[in-house]
Amino acid sequence: MASAADQMAQSISLSKFAKATDLKKRLWFTIGALIIFRLLSYVPLPGVDPTALGLLSQQTQGGVLDFFNTFSGGSLSRMSLIALGVMPYITASIVVQLATSLSPTLAAIKKDGESGRKRLNQYTRYGTVGLTAVQGYFIAVGLETLGAAQGIQAVIEPGMMFRVAAVISLIGGTMFLMWLGEQITSRGIGNGVSLIIMAGIVAHLPVTLVNLLEGGRSGSLDPIKLIGIVVAVVVLILFICFMERAQRRILIQYPKRQTQRGMQADRSHLPLKINTAGVIPPIFASSLLLMPLTISQFAGQRVAGESKWGDFIITLNQYLQHGSPVYMLLYGAGIIFFSFFYTAVVFNPEETADNLKRNGGFIPGIRPGKNTENYFDYVLTRITVIGAAYLTIICLLPEYLVTALQIPFYLGGTSLLIVVNVTMDTVTQIQSHLLAHQYGDLIKKAKLKGNRLR
After folding, report:
1. Which residue from 123, 89, 130 is spatially nearest to 106, judged by alpha carbons?
2. Which CATH superfamily is domain 220-453 in?
3. Which phi and psi (to 5°) does residue 205 adopt?
4. pLDDT by residue (tens digit) across 221-246?
5. TM spans, by residue (predicted)?
6. Burial 264-301 (b: 16+ CB within 10 A, else e)
């Protein structure tokens, strides 16, 4: 039986949207922020020759940087101010969260409430600056030697001044995106960082579709494969929607209380999502891969053929090509690890069991306290196994099939997962704002009727 909130949510129509002034302001702010992000992706680094950027794209084509270039909306291939996107910020937040779990000092700061959260955010910003500086330096060094074998110079005036300018520009671009994401989260709709990543992916969608249809028209792509891709994408989207809404509901019972029908016990359900971590594990795993691979990719161009160390870096980059077994293994292991790690961060069985005990709630057949905590941990571990397997299959299987069948389709399972997940989360927040606005209208009408009766 649907609850009153569900029935009201179903009755929301577009006519209510026109009256929700605050929601419209939030949507316009979000759209404006994403437009600024897309405009910045076309502003090149100072001192870079735009004619050599095409060569950079060709040399890294098919490599793992193509995958991360999709996340940044093509900013990496154009060497724009926001070439690194929000990945250094995500990497820094991972490091801080891992340190919080391992360090008692940081764990105590986290428990300080709002002040502790602000201190941890400050540490994350410092880490973002450091990681961006390191990656930016190796990118600048790699750009100086880019195209040297072909007699093309990507940097107009190589030297320390260019490196300093490039590092400062990349730090400024990444920090601005970090700030823009925070502004979208607080003043717009949805999670700002996730929306920025999704905007970069969606920006590649028209080109991907045009290339796919052109391949079918010219005959370079088998029509059967083209139809198979369309069907596979639709099935994949439906499967993602199903899994993202899948829940394991745990029955919670509260002590009996006196009602008009006599003594009755209150019952509710504690929903545990199969994929509690959401889209975070693939983003975290790809972010951790980006840091060393960016350094090795551009450092390899600098020292290629100069020493055994340079040959080792080149060999490493070949093994880490997008779709290679080593890349798949590292990426899959990262997804599984962060599925369990982030689930442990989001849901604390001990805290949940204590809250139930204080409120008099219990699980039928399970004693309150430690037994309830163990039960939550038992259930959560098993559904997280399913969630981690689902994320790993979604992210890796399409990549493997595209590589094995040599299909020119670059919007893989990870990209589809992020787009669908972020879209569902944003739509849910929009519905929540509309529902809150509708409740506000009902309260106002009730007050007016009450004043008239007086």
Report:
1. 123
2. SecY subunit domain (1.10.3370.10)
3. -60, -45
4. 778 878 888 888 889 889 999 998 89
5. 27-45, 81-102, 123-140, 160-180, 192-212, 224-243, 277-299, 326-348, 379-401, 407-424
6. eeeeeebebbbbbbbbbbbbbbbbbbbbebbbbbbbbb
CA distance 92 to 392: 23
* pLDDT value of residue 315: 72
In sign, the C-alpha dihedral spanning 221, 227, 232, 233 is positive
Q: What is the DSSP letter of 50?
A: G
- Structure tokens of 286? 């790809």
Q: Hey, what are 231's tokens?
A: 């069907």
Q: How far apart are CA 377 and CA 399, in angstroms?
A: 33
Q: Classify burial at 245, counting beta carbons within 10 Å of its beta carbon; exposed 0-12, middle 13-18, buried 19 or more.
A: exposed
Q: Is the pLDDT of residue 10 over 50?
A: no
User: Tokens representing 203?
Assistant: 């920006």
- The class that CATH gives domain 20-202 is mainly alpha
C-alpha to C-alpha distances, 451 to 369, 445, 447, 454, nearest whole angstrom: 49, 10, 6, 5
Predicted local confidence at residue 339, as pLDDT: 92
Map out the domains of the chain as residue ranges. Answer: 20-202, 220-453
d(CA 9, CA 2): 11
C-beta pairs of 57-60 under 8 Å, 24+ apart in sequence: 59/146, 59/147, 59/301, 60/297
pLDDT at 176 over 90: yes
Name, in order, each residue with C-beta under 8 angstroms of 355's C-beta and a sequence gap of 6 or more: none
Spatial separation of the C-alpha atoms in residues 213 and 51, rounded to whole Å: 28
How high is the pLDDT of residue 94? Answer: 85
DSSP 95: H
- For the cut 90, the answer to whether the pLDDT of residue 177 exceeds it is yes
pLDDT tier at 130 (50, 70, 90 boundaries)? very high
Give the contacts of 80 (CB within 8 A, at least 6 positions apart): 40, 41, 42, 43, 44, 45, 173
Does the pLDDT at position 405 exceed 80? no
C-alpha to C-alpha distances, 334 to 229, 279, 282, 370, 422, nearest whole angstrom: 27, 13, 8, 31, 20
- Contact, 202 vs 381, CB < 8 A? no
Query: What average pLDDT does the chain have?
Result: 79
Q: How many CB atoms lie within 10 A of CB 186?
A: 10
pLDDT at 316 over 90: no
- Residue 405 structure tokens: 């069948």
| CA proximity to 413, closest of 396, 438, 432 | 396
What token pair was written down for 293? 């691979």
pLDDT at 67 over 80: no
Q: When comparing pLDDT for 138 and 13, which is higher? A: 138
